[in-house]
Amino acid sequence: MTSTIPKIRDALHATFRSGLTRPLPWRQHQLYQLARMAQNERELIYDALQIDLGKPKTEVLVNEVGSIIARAVKSAKQLPEWAKTEYPDVADRQKLWKPAIYKAPKGNVLIISPWNYPMVLSFQPLIGAIAAGCTAVLKPSELLPTFSQLLEEIVPKYLDPNAYRVVNGAVPETTELLELQWDHIFYTGNGKVARIVASAAAKHLSPLTLELGGKSPVIIDSAYDIDLAAKRILWGKCNNAGQICVAPDYVLIQRDKQDELVKAFQKHYNAFFPKGALDSPSFGSIVSDSHYKRLISLLSRTKGEVVLRGRADAARRRLEPTIVKDVVDGDSLLEEEIFGPILPIVPVDSLQQAINFVNARSHPLVLYTFSDNESLKQQLVSETQSGGIVFNDTFQQLAVSELPFAGVGESGYGYQFMKHTYDTFTQLRSSIDMPKEAEAQLAMRYLPHSEEAVKALTAAVYTPIPPNRL
Ligand code: NAD
């Protein structure tokens, strides 16, 4: 059977060229349709995510369905403001030239999404693509067969299939998609596949967004309320059983506070899950057997001391939160992004040692810090690098739709959420419109140049530079 993928791409490309996606009211309608889809089909979405991921219902409604509805509706309302042509402030003599910045859709785009927050990570980029006036192919993760199949069924019922298509499949299909030319590729997933995506994008010079992960550390200042820090960290870690790119990956704390922190984790674990997490409907499962085995292998090789031993059930791919103390550099738990409900604690002798530990590794997606000390916070802002920096909480930053979400270095590049996603799929198209009356002003540029013209044209060379004060 010949593949339909190139035909789908060509059809969407033709739709884009036709101008169908240009009018703002049309884009707003598609955004409201997307919100309607999430609202009307939420039970089917929940059932699918329950089958594929064992996702707790409240987690699905709050973090997947609710956030997509809210962001689609808000984006539709704010779109006229975002899409306005901008007129930059320019030098007086250039005002006559009518400098303008048009907001142009980039074209036909490809969105490749992962399994862990499949609703939000598929539709959040799509909201931006629709708002920008692009056509798009959405490629969901093959690790969620029920959910991905559901998308193929429900998306065409709500969104115009001439402009938006779901293409399902695994590596061969994604590879085929990546061989084609796209006007932007938005990939969310791991760094290894990101390199494959980046090479494919380079062949067509396609612009690219890479939303990746990594090990997001937590630094706890000894003077902070350890009990509260433990509660907030454990809550952030329990979302989707730790399978989220912004999960707290490991904790750095001064050695003499480590046991207090462990006790606080135990206390809050018992409060969150009075009967344990193994059968709790509020705690998710591990996505696949291979991820489950990976986590068990990391745990079996750690030289740290397991202080909160999570029970495991291989048949149901369930693993309770597990806390390991006295983890040192080189340990299995520090090898790679954990992406599961295991939390290592790395004791340090000073805050500076914690900062050095973070700076010795690739730039994380988020750096979490618990401290009331404003100068320490500013020190961390200026002395470390990470996609985001969050003080005194975990995970909650995702609720602020106006903040740009992105990585840096190994955690990726390119921005998303609301207007930032719109901007990602929008080309800033510069323009001037030179009136005939400007001829007098422009006269000196024409050849041959008089001595006076050369002086005027080269004036910038002699721009006064402020004296060196360092
Ligand atoms: P995944 O296995 O579902 O893969 C993501 C996508 O890549 C899928 O659509 C898949 O089909 C495609 N893919 C897989 N192998 C491929 C190949 N060889 N060639 C082309 N495409 C291929 O998801 P994952 O990568 O395991 O996702 C987890 C990772 O994503 C973690 O590292 C996590 O931190 C990161 N993540 C980042 C964000 C963010 O916004 N920064 C959000 C969620 C997850």
TrEMBL record:
Among Gene3D superfamilies, the record links this protein to: Aldehyde Dehydrogenase, Chain A, domain 1, Aldehyde Dehydrogenase, Chain A, domain 2
One MF term from GO for this chain? aldehyde dehydrogenase (NAD+) activity
* Source species, domain of life: Eukaryota
- Give every Aldehyde dehydrogenase domain span: 15-429
The UniProt entry, under InterPro entries, shows:
Ald_DH/histidinol_DH, Ald_DH_C, Ald_DH_CS_GLU, Ald_DH_N, Aldehyde_DH_dom, Aldehyde_DH_NAD(P)
Record's GO cellular component, any one?
A: cytoplasm
One matching Pfam family: Aldedh
**Residues annotated as catalytic:** 211, 245
Keyword annotations: NAD, Oxidoreductase
GO terms under biological process = aldehyde metabolic process
Q: Which PANTHER family match?
A: ALDEHYDE DEHYDROGENASE (PTHR43570), ALDEHYDE DEHYDROGENASE TYPE III, ISOFORM Q (PTHR43570:SF16)
| Family affiliation | Belongs to the aldehyde dehydrogenase family.
Q: What is this protein called?
A: Aldehyde dehydrogenase
> In which organism is this protein found?
Suillus subaureus
